[in-house]
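TL;DR need C-alpha cells for one chain.
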Amino acid sequence: MKTNFEIDDNIGVKYDGIHIDLHNNFDLKSKQANEKNITIEFVKRNDDWVHEKEFKKLTFIHKNVNYEFYENGNNEEYPEDENTLSVIEYFPKSMRNINDGFVERTKPEKEDDIIYIFQNDKIIRLSCEEIELMVAE
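>> reply
TL;DR here they are.
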C-alpha cells in the first residue's frame, strides 16, 4: 500500500510535515464507494480548541480496494461519537480476525490494511493499493 501521509500517534496523520489531529479536530462526514475506490471524508469541527487555520476538509481516497470490513458500533448512549475518530492504524492482513489490536506504524507495510475506529466502536477496515490524502484549506 502506498500513501502520501504518515499516521501520527494513532489519532492523526502527518501530511507534508503538518500534524493533523483527526480525533480532536475533525468529524467523519461521509464514506462513498465507486467502482474500486472508497472515499472517506472528514470535516473540521467548530469547537473552540480547533485552530482557525486548520484544514477545512480531509479526503482519504482508497484506490483499488480489494478488501472491506465494516462494523456499525453502538449509538445508544452517545450517538455523536459515531463520527469521532478514536484510532487510525495500519494492521497486518494476516490478522483480519482482530480489529481492535494496536500496532504503532507511521507507514504501511506491503501486506497491511488500514483501520479507522470511532468512539462508538464503529470500524472501517480496508485494503487497497494506494491511499491519497487530499486537503482543503
